Structures are given as C-alpha cells and as structure tokens.
Amino acid sequence: ITLRQSLIIRIHGAKVTDTTGQELRILEIGITNPIARDLAVSVHDNGRDGQMLVNIDNPRKFCDRLRTISRRVFPEIKYIVTPYSLRHSVSADLKAQGLPVETRARFLGHQSGRLQRAYGRARQCKYPLISVRKVSATEMGRHTETATWPGKPKQASAVVRSHAP
Description:
This protein is α+β, with helices and mostly antiparallel strands and about 160 residues long. The chain has four helices and five strands.
C-alpha cells in the first residue's frame, strides 16, 4: 500500500456547551511511526473511499472495553490504559514537541489553554508518538471561565481519513 504521509481526523465533540468544549476538531497527524502507519493501513483497508467513521455510543462501555484490552495486551504492567490516561499521554507528547499551549488545547478539545497545566508533563514522554502537522477547531483559543458540565454527554464520533494516491 502506498499512503500519503498524514492522517486527517475529524472529531465531533461530546462535552460541548456554550462555554466549554469544541464542536469540531480537525487534526492532521504525520504517519511517522508504526502505530500511525497501522492506523492508516486499517483505515485504507477497512474504510470507504479512504474514510472510516468511528462512533462511541456509550462512553462508559468504551472505557471498560479499553481497560479490558489493556489488561490482556499488557498483563505484566500494573498500569491500566483508559481514555483519560491516553489524554495525558497525548498531552505529554504534544508538550515534548514544544507545541504552543493554544494548539495543544485545540488538539485535546479545550477552548482555553488554561487546562493544559493539568494534562501531561513533557518529561513523561519517552518519544512522541503523535506528529502534529495541523490543528483546527470550531473555537480558536477562546479564554473562558471554568464551567460545569450539565447533564449527560452527547454521542462522540470521529472520521479518520487515510490519503491514498
């Protein structure tokens, strides 16, 4: 398979209110390591027209499934992978790359860079797995006050596109 050198990921936010979250994020990541390449090949092979739609109908079930897989794949490690721990890992990768706080916030779906202090430390990153090429989002770095999340999150979804020539 011949693939271009990037994946385009469109993420529709789940925890979006008038003052928090990103309705839509578009992430372009480089295919610079075996994990990104495997994802690109999977999208190319299993998607339609180079695209794959991923829906998370039930965030709790998704989290439980990820924990179960983590225990099977890494039985000798006491650390359990969760969506929350992955966010911290991604944030550490982004910080290690020296990306501006606004770019990191948009990548993670935040409207404000203020939350970046709580997510990941650059020193936690052994080697960045994510090579960010471009990030755009509905709200471009608006600074907001802390808001509480009312009610139940909406369904989250993502479209992953692998560019094949």
